[in-house]
Amino acid sequence: MNAQTLATSYLTALEAADLDALLTLFHPDAVVHSPLYGPTPAGDFYPRLLADTGRSSLHLRGVTEGPNLVAIWFRFDWTLPSGAPADFECVDVLELGDDDRIRTLRIFYDTVTARPAFEEETGTSWRG
């Protein structure tokens, strides 16, 4: 799968809250490093994220790639279950294994607006 196809598949599954489609992109031992959730196995991270999402709209800005790496720049219009907005623009860096599935995903964004809304909604966050 090329970088553009992987990025599109990932963002489409995330926006649709399609857990099965998301997890097929990941190696079974994959870890997601998130500013709000901390380092978490992908199989635990995505159910938590989807449970904490009332609505999402994702807007791809760009995709870059290197050896075994794909970076996806996008805007995440994230609404929490209460209806509170927690929008951000971010870059996800995907480290791929030999099977082209995601082994590690590192999420980078400024949490200045998302963290307060998230913590009010959930009561906590990693490093909060």
Q: Kindly report the spatial arrangement of strands forming the biggest sheet.
A: 2-1-6-5-4-3
Mean of pLDDT: 95
- The total number of structural domains is 1
What is the CATH fold-level name?
Answer: Nuclear Transport Factor 2, Chain: A
By CATH, the architecture is named Roll
Query: How many β-strands, per DSSP?
Result: 6
Major pleated sheet:
6 strands, mixed
Q: Give the number of helices.
A: 4
Uncertain ranges? none
Order of helices and strands: HHEEHEEEEH
End-to-end gap: 37 Å
Q: Class, according to the CATH hierarchy?
A: Alpha Beta
Structural class: alpha+beta
Write down the Rg. Answer: 14 Å
| Helix proportion | 25-40%
Summed up, what is this model?
It holds the Pfam family SnoaL_2. This protein is α+β, with helices and mostly antiparallel strands.
Can you put this structure into words, describing what you see?
This is Nuclear transport factor 2 family protein. It comes from Actinomadura barringtoniae. This protein has one domain: Nuclear Transport Factor 2, Chain: A. A hairpin with a 3-residue loop joins strand 1 and strand 2. The protein is 30% helix and 41% strand. A 6-stranded mixed beta sheet has the order 2-1-6-5-4-3. It has 128 residues and is α+β, with helices and mostly antiparallel strands. It contains 4 helices and 6 strands.
What structural keywords apply?
128 residues, alpha+beta, Nuclear Transport Factor 2, Chain: A, globular
Could you give the topology of this structure?
Elements: H1 3-15, H2 19-24, E1 26-34, E2 38-41, H3 42-51, E3 55-66, E4 69-79, E5 88-96, E6 102-108, H4 114-122
Parallel strand pairs: 1-6
Antiparallel strand pairs: 1-2, 3-4, 4-5, 5-6
